[in-house]
Amino acid sequence: MQDEFGERYAAAQFARRENPLRRRIKQFYLDRILAHAVGPTLDVGCGAGQLLEQLPAGSMGLEVNPVLVAELAARGTRVSQAAANPDRIDLGECANGAFRTLVLSHVLEHFEHAGQVLAALLQDCAERGIERVIVVVPGKVGYDSDSTHKTFVTLDYIERENLNSGAGFKLLHQSYFPGNFKAVGRLFVYHELMLVYDRVE
């Protein structure tokens, strides 16, 4: 089993969460997502829960790492164990109409066939009544910094995979942070791209 599903990975995630300097810097990134999250939100790959604890009432996290799930649950956080599937993102038993937004932050790049995974996810979201999908992926240096990353997702990749729209969703917002320039991602490891899909039907 990959380390990202084990105790060592979970311990590192919580250590980062508790670091005061990291928390202050991380908040700038979280605020960017929070500005786009509408209503109860499903945080897929919620990690140590930094975003999840700030999402609107009724939100829930899905996480594949059982150690993270257990710790978040013990803290009173609403979280569910996600199935580890190399070919798709399993939304489990999430009830139709329970969430208005889905966040997929720093998860998509871990799939070998990321385009197919995102297309299937948009379809699943449409079937569950989700209105907005927020995807965040790393820039070039950030992507190269992690050996578990399998697909470098860029705007060009989204275009090639015909993912500007699908399942009634349309890509209505895309931006880089910090600095809304793709080139920053070749210099700064924590640079990222945000994609926001909205239901248009």
Can you give a write-up of this model?
This protein is an alpha/beta fold and 201 residues long. 30% of the residues lie in helices and 21% in strands. The chain is built from six helices and eight strands; from the N terminus they run ααββαββαβααβββ. An eight-stranded mixed β-sheet has the order 3-2-1-4-5-8-7-6. A hairpin with a 2-residue loop joins strand 6 and strand 7. The longest helix has 15 residues. The radius of gyration is 16 Å and the shape is globular. The model has no long low-confidence stretch (mean pLDDT 92).
Q: What is the alpha-carbon Rg in Å? A: 16 Å
User: How do the strands of the widest beta sheet line up side by side?
Assistant: 3-2-1-4-5-8-7-6
Low-confidence stretches: none
- Annotation, overall tally of beta strands: 8
Overall outline: globular
Structural class: alpha/beta
* Distinct helical segment count: 6
Helix amount = 25-40%
Q: Beta-strand percentage? A: 15-25%
Biggest sheet character: 8 strands, mixed
Order of helices and strands: HHEEHEEHEHHEEE
- pLDDT average, as an integer? 92
Distance between the termini: 41 Å
In terms of topology, how is this protein built?
Layout: H1 7-18, H2 20-34, E1 41-44, E2 60-63, H3 66-74, E3 79-81, E4 101-105, H4 114-127, E5 132-138, H5 140-144, H6 155-160, E6 165-166, E7 169-177, E8 192-199
Parallel strand pairs: 1-2, 1-4, 2-3, 4-5
Antiparallel strand pairs: 5-8, 6-7, 7-8
